Amino acid sequence: MLSEFSLIDKFFKKNAPKNPETRLGIGDDCALLSIPSGYELAITTDTMVEGVHFFSDANPAQLGHKLLAVNLSDLAAMGVKPLAVTLALTLPSIDERWLSEFSEGFLTLAKFYNVDLIGGDTTKGALTLTVQAMGLVPNEQALKRSTAQVGDLIYITGLLGEAGLGLKIKQGYACQSENALIRFHEPMPRIEIGLALRGIASACIDISDGLVGDLGHILNQSGVGACVDFDKLPLSDDVKRYIENTGDEFMPLISGDDYELCFTVPPSKITLVPKNCTAIGIIEKESGLRLKKFGHIQTFTAKGYEHFS
Ligand code: ADP
Ligand code: MG
């Protein structure tokens, strides 16, 4: 049986820290980061619990990827460049094969975004995975939820409802959409777009719990409302077919896990919006979220996924 220390050495201490700001990585009581002058350190954490955030039969490599991706997505949403992460693992037992695949999925994505794994904790208990992610953003340039203005256009990156369709497939809906399954199991955080949106977006959030719920956070925190045009939502042919077959037209609006960015842009800056982003609506003075469909406007009441509800 591996000890905690040899487990860390074997699976998680593979790569030496790459970023010059990482002064000390895994191995001491704390890691050390230096923050360049003129920058702020952005910090976020997200936990995934077996049975709540992932199925018990989840592929460990995909789990490692997704755990890191959902945390990096929070950095992306604020226009932050990822720097380092810590990893807290609670494991029911030491399963070397599981750990090997999990760390492979985790570290491959970390390498892709040049993120240093600088520490963590390892404990015994029900399978629970926590990451804390840290990144750098120039002073005052972080994209927030609270700064959308009336008249700003609302955009989203990529496609909506792909991960939602992936979940429906996992739950038995018959459809062969590789893209939906990949978006569900291995989302890619929109880091590059988040960085490109500094100085352009007036507000930004990542779509983890569904567009309605997450855009709702921007609206509430900015003290504004919005109208979203259903016909402008970027949907794949597979999602369109799903809606035709099931009548479940709200799925792309309320399903989570897409990890696309939803952001607002003042009219003076819309020519600067990066490619692969779609304008889906407009920020309005009247509070609440309205949905325009076939020319009709209806108030949207259904909520995105909420824990403890
Ligand atoms: P302490 O008891 O002082 O908190 P630990 O024995 O928990 O230290 O951890 C020893 C070192 O290994 C620390 O640098 C810690 O950050 C790191 N570490 C522990 N678990 C993990 C993990 N799952 N992934 C990465 N680093 C870890
Ligand atoms: Mg410890």
The CATH topology of the largest domain is Phosphoribosyl-aminoimidazole Synthetase, Chain A, domain 2
Count of distinct structural domains? 2
- Low-pLDDT runs of 5+ residues are none
**What integer value in Å does the Rg equal?**
20 Å
| Span between termini | 41 Å
- Secondary-structure element series: HEEEHEHEEEHHHEHEHHEEEE
Average pLDDT, all residues: 94
Shape: globular
Please outline the major beta sheet. 7 strands, mixed
**How much helical structure, as a percent, in the residues?**
25-40%
Task: Describe the protein in words.
- With 309 residues, the protein is an alpha+beta fold.
- It folds into two domains: 135 residues, 60s Ribosomal Protein L30, Chain: A, CATH 3.30.1330.10; 147 residues, PurM-like C-terminal domain (Phosphoribosyl-aminoimidazole Synthetase, Chain A, domain 2).
- The protein has nine helices and 13 strands.
- The chain has a seven-stranded mixed β-sheet with strand order 8-10-7-11-9-12-13, with helices on both faces. Strands 3-6-4-5 form a four-stranded mixed β-sheet.
- A hairpin with a 2-residue loop joins strand 12 and strand 13.
- The model has no long low-confidence stretch (mean pLDDT 94).
- The structure holds adenosine-5'-diphosphate and magnesium ion (MG).
- Adenosine-5'-diphosphate binds next to helix 1, strand 4 and strand 5.
